[in-house]
Write a structure and sequence with these properties.
14 helices; 321 residues; alpha/beta; eight-stranded mixed beta sheet; globular
Amino acid sequence: MTPFGTAVRKAMIEYRAPAEMVFVCIDRLGRATPIPDEIARFLGPRPPAGGGHQPIRVPVGDVELAVEVRGEGVPVLFVHGFPFDRTMWRHQLATLSRVRSIAPDLRGVGGSGAPPAADGYSLARYADDLVAVLDALGVRQAVLCGLSMGGYVIFELLRRHPGRVKAMILADTKPQADSAEAKRGREELTQVAQREGQDAVIERLLPRLLAPATQATQPKVAGQVREMARRWSVPGLVGALRTLRDRPDSTETLRGVRVPTLVLVGSDDEIAPPDTARAMARLIPEAQCHVVPAAGHIAPLEQPLATSRLLADFLRALPPS
């Protein structure tokens, strides 16, 4: 073997990293569809939720958060919605290249700890937790990517720590506060959580979370949503529901945004519909807005290929730091 070949072989031996294959079956229109049974049998058993990547533990005040960190490049902080956890971004974490993906479970969720006091949940606490994660990882600025409640947390982070935001990706979210009717619905769901637990909460929510096409053709996605909801503590559910109920209107916050912004919305999102997303994008100078076909309120999980492509294109076009 030549000296060059020996050096290459040595480098390959010294640099070893885990690899992950993502298999997505699509139809003629590029939409995700169920994997045929014969292919599923060939691929073998699915890995556990979150794949084989173990999160690191990051102390943030009164709790310790589970944070998944992958890759190198521009930092992208993924903020999950309610009642999901960091694994809702599983496809984006596995496929986005040339970025440093940072995906925490919020307090009281998944692998993260729950605060000792019942009042340990608020938008301010969620936002400050995220900044503490960035500090622990030595990240000065990050692209913030949030879905639904994750978007509300990003709005609060914008108010409290605007200098930490390099760019934003807002998925299936909206700036408006809850209406009086929505507030009553949150309180009813809070009582359900306290009486009956996680399963009862997700069964009430599930019909509005997924697009009709997802419910008809992707039963595994519904199963993944149920799994994520079961990883919430009951105090975490209650704290998040009351935080959602009491959140402020963020319209004026978004009018002041001066960073690159991508708005994504599922074509069949009933909670934050496309017209609401388009209006939100108009609040932010030069914001992009894209509708993901055949997706409901969880576009990154329902249509991972289309969502990841839009994220990759946006991230690739960002100006260098």
